[in-house]
């Protein structure tokens, strides 16, 4: 009887050890919890809407309003790690972005939106118009539902008033055409999707009216645009020119050099897939940053 009890105890112990080992193995191999297909689709559309909203703001140079509306908040947990990147460099932190992208004419990034516009009227320059078309979106939402990333091709012209008039009183305007790509990261802040990082990759930039078949062509001279009623303009030409002048470029130096040295197109440029096409990922630490 004792022998049977002894063997039964040993068998029970072995079964218990096996059960514990199996449970531990099963727990380790279970998939991490992921968002539902519905949540994924909603996040995808939200991020696409953010980039479209960005282009509507940017098209009329209301970049300060854009920052306040759809970027991570300047007093939030992602403010210091927000980035705005161009070939010239990377500006990190909402304070720097507020000047570099928001209003290069300001000297105080701590001003409120209302104060910055009041003290720097040229934050919204007269005659600014940009048409950026977000095409070919590729968006991946993280499995944990906390971040997302995407790329877009965005061609279009940027036109501006130079603040000058020709001898006949016509306003002088200039403009460029951009063939560029966007790479962007998004983060869910307090339950709302926001822009976290934006990077621009310029494929080809040329002046309106220039021969775009010649890479590196110099910018054109300012072009005359039909003036308004000459009677209304009388005696006020100087003021209008001053008010319409674009702000001087007082942007702070980049936080660091852009690690992606993306070369503009030329007949000898080696082709590459840049920016990287986003791939499925679970959490942001497992992917790259734009």
Précis, in short:
The protein is of the alpha+beta class and 290 residues long. Helix content is 30%, strand content 26%.
How much strand content do the residues show?
25-35%
CATH fold group: Nuclear Transport Factor 2, Chain: A
Mean pLDDT: 81
Low-pLDDT residue spans: 20-29, 224-248
> Which structural class fits the helix and strand makeup?
alpha+beta
Topology as a string of helices (H) and strands (E): HHHEEHHEEEEEEHH
Helix count from the secondary structure assignment: 7
**In whole angstroms, how far apart are the ends?**
72 Å
Rg for CA atoms: 27 Å
**What is the strand tally?**
8
Describe this structure in words.
It is a single chain. 30% of the residues lie in helices and 26% in strands. It has helices spanning 2-29, 37-59, 63-70, 94-102, 113-119, 230-233, 237-244, and strands at 83-86, 89-92, 129-130, 135-141, 147-165, 171-189, 192-207, 223-225. Strands 1, 2, 3, 4, 5, 6, 7 and 8 form an 8-stranded mixed β-sheet that branches. Strand 4 (135-141) and strand 5 (147-165) form a beta hairpin. The longest helix has 28 residues, at 2-29. 22% of the residues are buried.
Task: Output the keywords.
single chain; 290 residues; alpha+beta; Nuclear Transport Factor 2, Chain: A
What's the structural blueprint in terms of helices and strands?
Blueprint lengths: L1 H28 L7 H23 L3 H8 L12 E4 L2 E4 L1 H9 L10 H7 L9 E2 L4 E7 L5 E19 L5 E19 L2 E16 L15 E3 L4 H4 L3 H8 L46
Parallel strand pairs: 1-7
Antiparallel strand pairs: 1-2, 3-5, 4-5, 5-6, 6-7, 6-8
Helix pairs in contact: 2-3, 3-4
